[in-house]
């Protein structure tokens, strides 16, 4: 079976993007594991499926390299915006994308060649409650907490 895809990188996250506006792969989790393998596959942090949506211009489903489905990734959704505009899936420079974490709004900025050179996404308010992130820390907010790992101290947010 042939599969058309595009590999894109945004601020260090590299995903494999698949246009699913006509059909979805049968088992996206297995496909993510197979394609994301950096030695025997395309290699990447996972796959992003660009799908139709009833709630937004498009829907983004993403699967990590281990096959688990994630709600959203800011770097990946910016690449979805570029892909969608550059491939004529959307026309405006402000678009909406449905994600597992809700509908997000993107502002797209074309370069001199007419293709998208930059994208900005409104990610909403960050979740800082440890039990909701989830992270095994106490308190009301996870800001500037110190953890020990591998003999080193790390400040996390």
Description:
It is built from two helices and ten strands. The protein is mostly beta strands and 157 residues long. The mean pLDDT is 92. Strands 1, 2, 3, 4, 5, 6, 7 and 8 form an eight-stranded mixed β-sheet that branches. A two-stranded antiparallel ribbon has the order 9-10. The chain folds into two domains: 119 residues, Diaminopimelate Epimerase, Chain A, domain 1 (Roll); 33 residues, no CATH class. α1 links the parallel β2 and β3.
What's the CATH H-level homologous superfamily of the largest domain? Diaminopimelate Epimerase, Chain A, domain 1
Label the overall shape. globular
CATH class of the largest domain: Alpha Beta
Tell me the domain tally.
Answer: 2
> How many beta-strand segments?
10
State the separation between the terminal residues, measured CA to CA: 44 Å
Number of helices: 2
């Amino acid at each position: 079976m042939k599969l058309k895809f595009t590999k894109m990188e945004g601020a260090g996250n590299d995903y494999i993007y698949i246009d699913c506006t006509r059909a979805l792969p049968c088992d996206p989790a297995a496909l993510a594991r197979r394609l994301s393998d950096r030695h025997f596959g395309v290699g990447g942090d996972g796959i992003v499926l660009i799908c139709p949506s009833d709630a937004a211009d498009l829907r983004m489903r993403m699967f990590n390299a281990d096959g688990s489905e994630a709600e959203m990734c800011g770097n990946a959704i910016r690449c979805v915006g570029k892909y969608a505009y550059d491939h004529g899936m959307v026309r405006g420079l402000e678009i909406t994308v449905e994600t597992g974490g809700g509908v997000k709004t993107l502002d797209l900025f074309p370069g001199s060649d007419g293709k998208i050179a930059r994208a900005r996404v409104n990610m909403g308010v960050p979740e800082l409650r440890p039990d909701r992130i989830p992270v095994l820390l106490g308190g009301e907010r996870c800001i500037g907490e110190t953890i020990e790992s591998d003999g080193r101290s790390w400040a996390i947010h």
